[in-house]
Design a protein that fits this description.
The structure holds two protein chains of two kinds. By secondary structure, chain A is mainly beta. Chain A has one helix and eight strands; from the N terminus they run H-E-E-E-E-E-E-E-E. The radius of gyration of chain A is 16 Å and the shape is globular. The chains are: A mainly beta, B alpha/beta.
């Protein structure tokens, strides 16, 4: 499994808070405090009402598979290949880019139901991944 | 009313270096060779060049190149962002400058040791916090580090939605490899590709295989823009610029515009299409040949729809009908393109556009009046329509 190879995101004002939530085991979605619109990836201003005021909600972690790719080459140290990268339509309405685990590449299907599982690297870095929803198959 | 930029300027010269996997010279040297050849091709002295436009990714600064080739005093120097999305953007900036009298003779260039030096598919990383790096950081930690991985996500969705098959992608790769057999400059020259070869090649980022990816090339390409009036007095048949535009749309990210409602089309390319058609007063029926940006095969099929050559989901049918071949509806990338000639970030596709208008392509279709050229796909992009004088 993964060593401490992973490129860490830069922790800026606009995104660092999100990774702190992940470190606490939560998949956060930014929310405009003025018009309540959810947005991801996070950014400092609401594109709908232009408010700079925001907070966040914690996603349920449930969603469906929007698209995916199975990466074979080039192989970067530390990642397990074939590596399944997915777009998840979260049930709250935003979309999230992640990795699918506990699923063989040939079993991936568009629209399959997914659930979030918080992955932790040996160095303690945490990031949300997804697996097929329990009880969703068959 | 005619658009202000329509027919005011022309491509008067094109200059290419040799394309290789190891140039053995600096990128500045490649840029200088390409520039001097473009000047020579046009019959314009380098001392008459007073503008340079390139890509932000290009390591050669405008003033370094100006000093190296003995250009005149510069009145325009600028670089366009977003990788291959800059390609026809450089032409737009030159056209705006020449049409307004800001500059007279402008060189657009891209020179790169794209194989022996900095390669594009080696992953991205960085320490400085910028909005661009924060953007990439939603993908980097997951191991999504290469253009192929970013493009595959959209290609897969598009293919699933419209029933596009691997063989359809293979048809694009083979069509362009066939053109490369006539082009001695091309990386694919002397190396024909069969469907069997294509399907047997290794999967890189499912559904994309090796031959769905463009070349990696050391080389340079320069395009000389001047007024249409001046171009008529120079050595080559001018390729008149009927329309040229940059385009970026809502929800645009660099390569990863994954958060739009629909992921099975190219909104920025549809905008580019609308803008160049409006500007030129032309439509898809007027376009006889194209150089659609082809870093990846799937993007070519999607662009057939963006530019209105067919309806949504019908790009695959055009490809199956042989539309992209020399005797087809829209001969495309007749030099081999980025897939089979070389990857000079689309600048070499603009050069082929000019050759198609001149009638000097190594695979010249009959009766070419108008050629469409596009910039990088999945990034802020643009489009260009060239016409015969």
């Amino acid at each position: 499994m993964a060593q401490s190879f992973r490129m860490k995101p830069p922790m800026g004002e606009d995104n660092g808070w999100w990774w702190k939530q992940a470190a606490e085991g939560k998949l956060a979605i930014q929310r405009c405090q003025s018009c309540q619109t959810l947005r991801h990836p996070p950014r400092p201003v609401c594109g709908e009402c232009h408010s700079f005021e925001w907070d966040h909600i914690t996603a349920s972690g449930r969603g469906t598979l929007c698209s995916y790719t199975v990466l074979h080459h080039p192989q970067f140290p530390g990642f397990d290949y074939p590596l399944i990268i997915i777009l998840v339509d979260l049930e709250e309405g935003t979309r999230f880019t992640s990795q699918l685990i506990n699923c063989a590449p040939e079993d991936v299907t568009f629209g399959m139901r997914l659930e979030m599982i918080m992955h932790e690297d040996p160095d303690g870095f945490r990031l949300p991944m997804f697996q097929p929803a329990q009880g969703a198959a068959a | 009313m005619s658009h202000f930029l329509k027919d005011k300027t022309a491509i008067a010269g094109i200059g290419l270096t040799e394309f290789s996997k190891k140039s053995g010279v600096s990128e500045l040297s490649l840029a200088a060779q390409a520039t001097l050849r473009a000047c020579d091709d046009a019959g314009v002295s380098p001392s008459e060049i007073n503008g340079f436009v390139s890509y932000t990714l290009d390591s050669t600064d405008e003033i370094e190149l100006a000093r190296t080739v003995g250009a005149g005093d510069l009145k325009l120097f600028t670089k366009v962002n977003y990788g291959g999305g800059a390609a026809v953007g450089t032409i737009l900036h030159a056209v705006m400058a020449v049409a307004t009298g800001v500059a007279n003779n402008v060189i657009c260039y891209r020179a790169m040791n794209g194989r022996s030096g900095q390669r594009m598919g080696q992953g991205v990383s960085g320490q400085i916090i910028s909005s661009d790096l924060v953007h990439w950081s939603w993908y980097m930690p997951y191991g999504m580090l290469t253009p192929g991985s970013w493009v595959a996500m959209i290609a897969n969705k598009y293919m699933q939605r419209y029933g596009v098959t691997c063989e359809d992608l293979g048809r694009v790769a083979i069509s362009q490899r066939n053109y490369a057999q006539n082009n001695p400059r091309a990386a694919g020259y002397g190396n024909p590709l069969t469907m069997e070869d294509y399907l047997a090649s290794k999967v890189i980022a499912d559904p994309l295989r090796l031959y769905d990816f463009c070349q990696e090339t050391d080389g340079g390409c320069a395009i000389l823009i001047t007024s249409a009036e001046r171009a008529r007095d120079l050595k080559q048949k001018p390729a008149i610029i009927r329309g040229v535009a940059q385009a970026s749309t809502q929800g645009q990210e660099q390569m990863t515009s994954y958060y739009r409602d629909e992921l099975d089309s190219l909104p920025e390319m549809e905008l580019a299409a609308r803008l160049v058609y409006e500007q030129s007063g032309l439509g898809p029926d007027d376009i006889n040949a194209a150089c659609l940006y082809d870093a990846f095969t799937a993007e070519v099929i999607m662009q057939l729809e963006s530019f209105g050559f067919c309806g949504r989901g019908e790009g695959k049918d055009m490809v199956r009908d042989g539309a992209l071949d020399i005797d087809g509806r829209l001969p495309n990338n007749t030099h081999g393109g980025l897939l089979s000639e070389s990857y000079i970030h689309g600048m070499n596709n603009i050069a082929e556009g000019a050759r198609l208008i001149r009638g000097t392509s190594t695979s010249q279709p009959a009766g070419v009046e108008h050629v469409l050229v596009s910039s990088g796909v999945g990034v802020p992009t643009g489009a260009l329509i060239l016409g015969r004088d």
